[in-house]
Write a structure and sequence with these properties.
Strand content: 15-25%
Number of strands: 17
Organism: Arthrobacter terricola
CATH class: Alpha Beta
Helix content: 25-40%
Number of domains: 1
Pfam family, one: Amidase
InterPro entries: Amidase, Amidase_CS, Amidase_dom, AS_sf
Protein name: Amidase
GO molecular function: catalytic activity
CATH topology: Amidase signature (AS) enzymes
Largest sheet: 8 strands, mixed
Length: about 475
């Protein structure tokens, strides 16, 4: 029964828990056993509170026995991303300075998930301050890909994605500035949604006006991702931009939903980015499959002119604001590529930042025009397949040299300044068995529809049902 429980979907598990066909304690013990078995290899969960989780699961079972009202996530175990503050549980942000840091309060999305009945188990690994799409740091080391432990799990929500793929938990939280939900989802054959900014309130940082970073949900399927999103989303008075509300808990869908859909296929984002042949070999047949279902698929891409510069300017300016003083005082406090990003921010002017915001404004308006003609954009979620875990980052794609640790992440981050919802959904595998995700991008505020289309796509590709073999046999 144990192995059966760890790969049950979150929606199915939640129903079994509410009906008391299984107990929260049974579900927790099944996942703890899997963590004990495989986490020493995968290194996805970096802080673990078995005793606290068992107490919470026992209380959840008593609550069910008393006939009390149960939340939508009742009894589901979850380890939170190690950049999300968790009251009374170590939160390191992947940095040695915070090795023993224990926050006094929960971030809002963490509190919402716990209030919905989830069982807190631990924390999932991240890159240093979540900067980069490969999960390794000087506190805990690297997270390995469950499909091939010699490969990267992606990032920055790499621990979260790997934990899902390895059967450590049925749902996971993450965050995304330039692909940190989408890239690891692609690498680990799960679903990661970057919501429309405002869907999940931005109350966790010091700047609610920063337009690039959002928190969002992950799951092994779009349906499970939607369940978690329904809990994380919703307005907060602490974020003046959080005005959206949608019922996304259920995403009934069928492949026929693609009939008549206007789909823009952007395999290289209009020639802007190099993409590995292995990635293209996985996603090109999926575009053809949508066409065969009656979708009107055309080669096209939203206007991304100026997106790269706007993203890099705003990111670097934010990094300088957060860590510039510390870097000046402690030159060795950060890894070399994050330190370089911070220094770039220190060279920017207020004029540079405002012009980047003006470029975003133009891009958002052009995107609105684009989605008057199209319903959906499909593109690579990552330009590469999972690479060797010992690399800091890829330096070449199909003969194209990459100058820095951001260049290989452009497929997801070029969409970030447009303010659109975007997700990665499992789309295929390389001949060696490495996962490849398809990025799906919708019009602003259409997150629920995007999840429904991803669920319909899953019925076509069937990739979500393929479990890792690389970790399980070691």
């Amino acid at each position: 029964m144990t192995n059966d429980l760890i790969y049950r979907g979150a929606v199915e598990l939640a129903a079994l828990l509410r009906s008391r066909e299984v107990s929260a304690t049974e579900v927790l013990e099944a996942h703890l056993e899997q963590i004990d078995k495989l986490n020493p290899l995968i290194n996805a969960v970096v802080t673990l509170d078995e005793e606290g989780a068992r107490k919470s699961a026992a209380e959840a079972d008593r609550k069910a026995a008393r006939g009390e009202q149960l939340g939508p996530l009742h009894g589901l175990p979850i380890s939170f991303k190690d950049t999300a503050d968790t009251a009374g549980m170590r939160t390191t942000y992947g940095h040695p300075q915070f090795r023993d840091h224990v926050p006094a309060s929960n971030d809002l999305h963490v509190q919402r998930i716990l209030d919905a009945g989830a069982i807190r188990v631990g924390k999932t690994n991240v890159p240093e301050f979540a900067a980069g799409s490969h999960t390794f740091n000087r506190v805990f080391g690297a997270t390995r890909n469950p499909y091939d432990p010699g490969k990267s799990a992606g990032g920055s929500s790499g621990g979260a994605a790997a934990a899902l793929a390895a059967g450590f938990q049925p749902i996971a939280d993450g965050s995304d500035m330039g692909g940190s939900l989408r890239n690891p989802a692609s690498f680990c054959n799960v679903v990661g949604l970057r919501p429309t900014p405002g869907m999940v309130p931005n109350t966790d940082g010091s700047n609610v006006f920063f337009p690039l970073a959002v928190s969002g949900p992950m799951g092994r399927t779009a349906e499970d991702t939607a369940l978690l999103f329904s809990v994380m989303a919703g307005a907060s008075p602490e974020d003046p931009h959080s005005a959206f509300a949608q019922n996304t808990a259920h995403v009934p869908s069928e492949p026929g939903d693609f009939a008549g859909l206007r789909v823009a296929f952007a395999p290289t984002l209009g020639g802007r980015v190099p993409v590995s042949r292995e990635v293209l070999d996985a996603i090109e047949p999926q575009a053809a499959a949508l066409s065969a279902l009656g979708a009107r698929v055309e080669l096209d891409c939203p206007d991304l002119e100026g997106s790269d510069k706007a993203f890099r300017v705003l990111r670097a300016a934010a990094f300088d604001a957060m860590w510039g003083d510390q870097l000046a005082a402690e030159p060795d406090a950060f890894n070399h590529f994050l330190a370089g990003n911070i220094r770039e921010g220190g060279l920017l002017s207020g004029r540079d930042v405002i012009r980047a915001e003006e470029a975003m404004t133009r891009l958002i308006r052009k995107a609105a025009e684009f989605f008057e003609r199209y319903d959906l954009v499909i593109a690579p979620a990552s330009q590469v397949v999972p690479f060797d875990v010992d690399l800091e980052y890829p330096t070449e794609i199909e003969g194209h040299h990459l100058d820095n640790y951001l260049d290989w992440m452009r497929a997801p981050y070029l969409f970030t300044p447009l303010g659109l919802p975007a997700l990665s959904v499992p789309a295929g595998f390389t001949p060696s068995g490495l996962p490849v995700g398809l990025q799906m991008v919708g019009a602003r505020g259409t997150d629920a529809r995007l999840l429904r289309l991803a669920s319909a796509f899953e019925k076509i590709s069937s990739c979500s049902a393929v479990r890792p073999q690389g970790a399980a046999v070691l």
